[in-house]
Fold:
Amino acid sequence: MFLKILKKDLQRKKTMNLVLLVLVILASTLVASGTNLLYTTSTAINSFIDKSNVADLIITTADNPETGSAISAWTEGQQNIQAVYSQQLINVLAKQIGLPEGRKAISTNVGLLLSTVPEKVNLVFNEHNSSLTVKPGEIALPVSIGNATGLQTGDVMELRLAGVTRTFTVSGFFKDAYLGSDLLTIKRMIISAEDFTSIRDAVASESLTKLWSFVAAAGTPGGGLSTALSKTDIPVSFEIDKSLVNASFLTDRIIAALIVAISLFLICIAFLTLRFTIVSTLQDEYRSIGIMKAIGFNNFSIKRLYLVKYLVLASAGGVVGLFLQMPLTQAMSSSISQYIIVPDSFAGDAVAAGSVAVTVVIILLFCLQCMRAISKASAIDAIRLGHTGERFGKSRVIRLHRSRILPPTVALALGDVLGKLRSYTTLIVTVVLSTAVMIIPINLIHTISTPSFIQYFGTAPADFYTKSEIADVPLSVVHQEMERLKQVFQEHDYPAALSVDYTFVTKYISDDGEDSRNIGGIKSEPAAEHLYLEGVSPQLANEIAITSIMSENYDKQPGDSIVFEIDGKRSTFLITGIFQTISNEGYMVRVSQEYVPQTVTSYQFGGTLEAPAKEKPALIAQMKQELSELEIKSGEDMLSVVIGGFMGRLQSVKALLIGIVCLIVFFIASLFVRLLIAKEVRGIAVMKSLGFTSGQIRHWQMLRILFLMIGSLAVGVVAANLLGERMFAVIFRMFGITHLEFAIAPLEVYLLYPALLLTVVVLAVYSSCGQIKRVQVWNMNME
Amino acid sequence: MSAVLEVRNLCKTYIVNKAQNHVLRNISFTLEQGEFVSVMGPSGSGKSTLLYTVSGMDRSTAGEVIFDRQKLDGLGDKQMAEIRLTQMGFIFQQMVMLGNLSVYDNIILAGYQSLRSKGSTRTRTQVNEHADRLMRKLNIIDLAGHDITEVSGGQLQRACICRSLINEPTMLFADEPTGALNSQAAKEVLEELCRINREGTSIMMVTHDAKVAAQTDKVLYMLDGNIQGEFQLGKYTGETELRERERRLNEWLMAMGW
Structure:
């Protein structure tokens, strides 16, 4: 008998059941895919780092006997160090690489190192996850360079180093745990030992760098080697420890976490829809429930009847979702598996299956909770359709006869919305949640793609930027280059005021002298207007600005003093301001114009055009052509270089999200309108008898949903702007941004995407209003 | 007297599970201006279908319906809705009103809607005044601001009558208007219909109740989709002749097989 009732219910409420099934499938698919991806990504990153034998501390230094001796002396006295490996590397500038036609040049923001195949630590692997081999005349590149340039296996590239020019055939692309993540902008290129020796012998000794890898002894705390090294005077060009290598893959985890967040949102919507459909079903079937109770069915027997249906729907949706998650997970992890070794494991699928099972159980428990009304209703209540015959409050808000202008359909729609707002909870919450879930990533993407975001990387705002150079050079070299560039711009008659941002190494010394840390220092010449969270920019030689992360961790405020060692000289500085940066985990200092560091580790020129804002893009385009050797970039170009990879994947998630949100809103609005029409069929029949056309009745339905939508969209947008900022503030803090302010694109957030959702709803309402035409006068006799 | 409704050879067939169900078979009759006609017959004889088909609420399968000199067959949905809005009024056994409007707003709703029709010269104030007059006449003016759940069945049916008359229709269609009311309320509602008829509105009413039908001018008796007979009672003048009219009607109905 149960099966008969179930079959009848499935046939009668096709649309409602279909929407429920689709929601359960979507939620299950995304829950399974998100948890699978999160598990796989996390375990894959850890196992990849282990398989690559990434050292606990890796530094690069100048390749000279003094540094070598200093490191040897330090390591001998360190019980924390189990093994030390060193490897020679050759610095290469992007401009020294010639690529075949049709391939994009390697970004000058990427630091390049020529290396042989590492044998003991920091290993690299080919596309098939096995050890990399490179023959003479061949070069292997990291996957990220392959993706950015479009280089293919077999392409020929030229290295034009000072003193030697060599051509290499690209033999393939490798996976690199040490320097392979999106966030690290130093990349290795690997050639054979023979080629490496011949190039090394030909280039100047300044081009050589030494890579030192230290393996910690068992029991050494994380970061212990880094702390110990910072107490020495060893000049380090670049330092990274194992935990930072792991953290540098954070963007991959964020993508997986975003998918889990989307699935949670879908589960919320599924639950709301379930509640709505269960309540509607119970209302429709109150009389049947009463009769069942009257003839002796107990509460559980009646609940079981409905539970069987939801068990079938949830189980079917869960199974389909489990199968669908496989291609989705594969598609989502395909970009990750390009540069990470993702182990084939059954565990990921088991995690997915487990999460689907939990989802199905939660759905069923939720159904049971929604069915409490069955237990509460007596047989007589149920037969009387739950009406007690009493009414204590008036539901009318709109009084048609008092209005001089409101057309009847508008008044009806307004009256419905204002008088029965609670009955639209499902639709309102769905639209508010959908809007928020859609707008938050849009705000995030816009925030990190706004040119001003570049300031968080320590770069002063400018109209354009030139190539950046990563090299240990005296400051005088930077000044000479600045003069030369000024000359070039004058010759070409460009009205540009040039500036330069350069970095140098500083060492923070704690007040008790026990703790220290290498921190990048930055200076802009001439002084640029940087944003400060507190205080002002440093003006005197003994003044300094520190980041908010440093302020929190070292308990320093503007007005406090702080000790730094720069160019081997220890000085006490007065903190004048607090700023924030996304570089170096949020650790950076800014010095005044009066302070002159000796050695610069990297520099980049920027320029402000003295021209009307409208003409600037054309001028920059012209400069890009005429001064191609300077590799001029606009603010947007700079940003895409820095966060391009992460951005691309965020855009994919955004596209997926918009698709899902539109689908959900369409389904829910459609379901809602169909149920409303079914409930109001008698009223519709009367309206027809009064002379209202089907079109006018549809107009009433449409207006009602539109009024609800406009209100819900507004709430959703406000919630997205407020909550999204707070939510991502937590994530950005990990990168060093302690005070995140969303940059909102008003056109997209307030117009374009709300209009998209409104269009989807209008389509859903119109496509669901067809039954209005079929309503006849005798529908008035329906109960 | 001129005919307000002419029905010629009207047929209505439903197809259910590929089987044809002839609900109306070649029905012809005329309803004159100011006439009050009742339709009687056993359940399933086609009374309500006849009412809805001649009023354009439902489409006929064959035949002709001429209402106020206009052929209803072939009119589009919009034109039909316009006729229902401005020239016809409907009263049903189920007193359905829109829940979010007060009794008064339910009555004026169609009136306000008619102001949007071409050629309408009335204003909202005039509609309100007309609604006030009707409610006063039907003795429900005190209920104007009430919620529809706060009034009795008889009061609600009188409100439905006011609603049907708000646009001063040429003709009123009533489908068992007293069917869901107690005897006192039914009596009051019928008195109102008789008064409206006396004021010139033609009425076609479906009823099961011979006592109700006895107060109308003419009775059509339906059986199996056909009009089996027509009984002229003449104008009803007052309660004193009701018993005699009822007796004559019952005799005729018995002869018809009632």
Q: What stands out?
A: The interface with chain A takes residues 48, 52, 57-58, 77-78, 81-86, 88, 90, 92-94, 96-102, 104-105, 108-110, 112-114, 116, 124, 128, 131, 147, 149-150, 163, 167 of chain B (CB under 8 Å). The first strand of chain B starts at residue 3 and ends at 16.
